[in-house]
Design goal:
This protein is α+β, with helices and mostly antiparallel strands. The chain has one domain (4-66). It has 1 helix and 3 strands. The chain has one helix spanning 31-44; strands at residues 4-8, 16-17, 22-26. It has a 3-stranded mixed sheet with strand order 1-3-2, covered by helices on one side. It is globular, with a radius of gyration of 13 Å. Bound molecules: zinc ion (ZN). Residues 2, 56, 58, 60 line the site of zinc ion (ZN).
Length: 82
């Protein structure tokens, strides 16, 4: 089973759950930060990472397409938090 990526509010999930092989990222990350965060977590797990993108321990590239909520209200809803 490949590593999966899910989004969860900060503090509600461990960064990596070995039981489900799921990486939890804070909601609201843009794609660039998502890739950076996933790579950092995978590196901590001793999974070699390619120059770009992120890769599962089996060598498969991970799908990091942003999960945009269906009820997104528009560009004004985008925040620029720290
Ligand atoms: Zn895999």
């Amino acid at each position: 089973m490949c590593i999966r990526v899910q989004y969860a509010p900060i503090g509600s999930a461990r960064p990596y759950d070995a039981a489900t092989q799921t990486i939890a990222l804070p909601t609201g990350l843009d794609r660039e930060r998502t890739v950076t965060a996933v790579r950092a977590i995978l590196s901590e797990l001793a999974v070699p990472q390619p120059q770009f993108g992120a890769r599962c321990f089996c060598g498969e590239p991970l799908d990091l397409a942003p999960r945009i909520p269906q009820q997104r209200t528009g560009e004004q809803a985008v925040t620029h938090g720290a």
